[in-house]
Amino acid sequence: MQGTDIGEVAKKAGVSRTLIYYYFKDKMELIQGMFLEYFEAAKQFVGGALITEESPLVRLERYARFYLETAVTKPRRVILYRNMINDMPIVFGGQSQAFYHTFLDNVHGSLIRTVEEGIAAGLLAEVEPRLLAQTFMGGVTGAMLELAKRQLSEDEGRALADQAVGVILQGIVKSPA
């Protein structure tokens, strides 16, 4: 963020520096807007992926697959996401905790509800739902970061994403009695 130059941003966006300043008073406001736009996009994706009538397992697989395939096809986006969490205190100052918790509630709330449904249906391990959701998310995040740092063809990446999705889901599915 510190090395970001508004002139470079304008050039990459194909607009004038003046136009950027018409919408944003300074670089920090531009970056805050970017963060908030990302948070809203994540909320919309998660809602669409997890709030459906499908089986919780289908929804969780779609959720994991999306993020893992994004790591393969758009690795820079994954690195940006990882850095966003660390940069929140710089971007939002004293409000960073509130923004972070709102983001988690919006994104992880749907995940927790899906996990609760899976447990109630006897599909997922009988583990405290928040812990199981975080365990699932930890697997997805770890695999995302690993895939993002590799130089993979789409075919190689999809094969590894398939393996990771299988391992992640296998870890949270209820074992036969």
TrEMBL record:
Residues 5-24 bind DNA. SUPFAM superfamilies: Homeodomain-like (SSF46689), Tetracyclin repressor-like, C-terminal domain (SSF48498). Keywords: DNA-binding, Transcription, Transcription regulation. InterPro entries: Homeodomain-like_sf, HTH-type_TetR-like_transc_reg, HTH_TetR, Tet_transcr_reg_TetR-rel_C_sf. GO terms for molecular function: DNA-binding transcription factor activity; transcription cis-regulatory region binding. The keyword Transcription regulation applies. Residues 1-42 form the HTH tetR-type domain. This is TetR family transcriptional regulator.
